[in-house]
Structures are given as C-alpha cells and as structure tokens.
Design goal:
This protein is mainly α. It has 2 domains: 45 residues; 77 residues, Orthogonal Bundle (Arc Repressor Mutant, subunit A), CATH 1.10.10. Helices cover 78% and strands 0% of the residues. It contains 7 helices and no strands.
Length: 133
C-alpha cells in the first residue's frame, strides 16, 4: 500500500467526525484528486468516499453494539450530519435501521445469557439427580 494512502487512512480513522471530501483528502497527502482516486482504488479496492462511508458505518455499528449513546449522537460522532442519511445508509449496509440493529443485538445477548443460565441450571439438576439415584 502506498504510504500516503496508509497515512491518509490513519488520519481519517482518527477524525471520522470531521468533514472529509476528496479535495481535502488529496490536499492532505499532496496529490491531485484523480491521482488520489487511482492510488486509493489500487490500495484499498474502493473509492475514497465509499471507503469513508463504510468506515463510518462500521464505527457506528461498533458503537451501537458497545454503548448506550443515543443514535443521533453516534451518527454525529462518526461524521454523519444528516440523521436520515445515516439511517438509510446503515439499513442499506446492515439490513436494519440503527434502532432495529441495536434492539436485535440486545435481544441476542439476552437470549444468550438466558440459554447459558438454563444450561447451567439443567446441568446441576441432572447432576443432582444422578448423584442421588
């Protein structure tokens, strides 16, 4: 991977909440926009803007799974200024709105906890019965 692209990816990843467009990206690494686009596509396999959108959505997904922050706060933290745009892009990538996704993750965790608890209870009951019998 071209070192300039690597440096750009690192800088963008650390500042997702900021406005990034191809012009700013190119200027950051002292490349023309067409050259940046070509190098980026060769290095990453995606266009700069598509990569940025995917990176923001991945970070939002992580925050939805690991925090209780409000969804509009998460959207802002990862660089979406338009909540409806964020919801549409998130649903397109993950098949559920951010709210639905968070609910599904929470339900799976609760189901996993109750299944572990039931297995543990059943195991103890069976062990207790076999010891007595």
């Amino acid at each position: 991977m071209d070192g300039r692209i690597f440096a750009l990816l690192s800088q963008i990843s650390e500042t997702l909440d900021q406005e990034w467009d191809v012009g700013r990206m190119a200027k950051t690494v002292d490349l023309s926009q067409p050259r940046l686009h070509r190098l980026f596509k060769e290095s990453v396999g995606n266009t700069p803007i598509a990569w940025l959108r995917d990176k923001r959505l991945e970070e939002a997904k992580n925050l939805l799974e690991t925090t209780f922050r409000q969804i509009n706060q998460i959207a802002r933290e990862v660089g979406f200024t338009d909540h409806s745009h964020f919801t549409r892009d998130f649903a397109s990538k993950y098949g559920a709105s951010p709210r639905e996704y968070r609910r599904l993750v929470w339900e799976r965790r609760q189901k996993g906890k109750s299944e572990k608890g039931e297995k543990g209870k059943r195991g103890k009951v069976k062990k207790g019965k076999s010891e007595k019998g």
